[in-house]
Amino acid sequence: MVLTDAALLKGRDLVDVCRLAVRGGATAIQVRLKVAPARDLLAAARSLVEALEVPVLVNDRVDVALAAGAAGAHLGQDDVPIVAIRPHVPAGFVLGLSVGTAAEAARSLDWPADYWSLGPCFATASKADAGAPLGPEGFSALARQAPGGMPVIGIGGIAPDNAASIRRAGAAGVAVLGAVWDASDPEAAARALRRAVA
Question: What would the pLDDT profile of 115-163 be if each residue is shown by its tens digit?
Fold first, then answer.
């Protein structure tokens, strides 16, 4: 999963870079534009939904995801609890959840999420309030706390040289920002990540 970040666009077109990432092997895009007004977030999400053949999720904003026709939304621990949202979204609407500690895992056990995103796996500059890096061992321990059958993905500092270690630790996949957006060739970067995860 490739997350978007306005600060990393550097003048490039959002849809163009996401298309390249998908061509390189990204299987989902998460629209994460933290400081964008809802109107701009909706426009970005709609343009990606129309342009891409992979699922598009919206970070934090279920309302924007629904309005854009997105596949789902990704929520944090401080957002409206998934248990309160699930009855109000259509069947098949994906709801992902960020989990970074054992306490958050325990609190979230009964929430009807479709996947957990665990992290940060490694040091990251993309999220200022990220906690201490889990590393592969910490990721594995946290992943074992997920409900049976719950897919878990790794996020935070993921790159081609460390993605395989998180996959071996139990991740169904990985989510990235800088590994694709900082690359001069986003398609090649996504391809390298896809190979590492495979």
Answer: 999 999 998 776 666 678 999 999 999 999 999 999 999 999 999 999 9
Active site residue 19: no
Name the catalytic one among 127, 167, 191, 194: 127
Q: How far apart are CA 109 and CA 112, in angstroms?
A: 8
Is the separation of the CB atoms in 61 and 33 below 8 Å?
no
Euclidean distance between CA atoms 171 and 115, whole angstroms: 11
**With a threshold of 0.70, does the pTM exceed it?**
yes
Please confirm, yes or no, whether 98 is among the known catalytic residues.
yes
Q: Is 34 one of the annotated active-site residues of the chain?
A: no
Write down the catalytic residue from 19, 32, 167, 191: 32
Choose, from 19, 61, 98, 117, the residue flagged as catalytic: 98
DSSP letter (8 states) at residue 87: G
CB 116 within 8 A of CB 96: yes
Residue 129, C-beta contacts closer than 8 angstroms, at least 6 positions apart: none
- Decide: 138 and 105 in contact? Cβ < 8 Å: no
